[in-house]
Amino acid sequence: MPYYIGTMTIDATDQRIIALLRENARASTAQLGRRLGLARTTVQSRIERLLHNKVIAGFTLRMGAERERGQLHAHVMITAIPKLLTRVEATLRGLPEVRKLYSVSGQHDFIAVLVTDSVGEMDKILDRIGALPGVDRTDSSIVLSTRIDR
Prior knowledge:
The protein is an alpha+beta fold. The chain has helices spanning 12-23, 29-36, 40-52, 85-93, 119-130; strands spanning 3-5, 8-10, 72-80, 98-103, 110-116, 135-142. A hairpin with a 6-residue loop joins strand 4 (98-103) and strand 5 (110-116).
């Protein structure tokens, strides 16, 4: 069923292209065309349209097998003192272990995604975040395994 992003209609073919690009963003337009039963030029023009309309924001590198190399991932829910939210965010931006920072609704203000090379490093960065001026409370969860990564 088609849907709209802004004024652009996203049809079933666009949805299939997006799904295939999620699986492998490096797939050539010829490969995508073969899988979709479409001409390479049709796939290329649709991708360009999706990019132009910012449905696809870009292509990026995702590191594979980080857990296998010994890296730990954690999700840290952070509650901050309201007047110091901006300061907490600015400090978190400067920490290289913070790979993503989400502003969220609910009882927490942020969710930070952390990556470290060891349990000791994770322990230190969690203590450092908990001690930041303006941080009221943290709850952390270490990622044991990834079940779905789209």
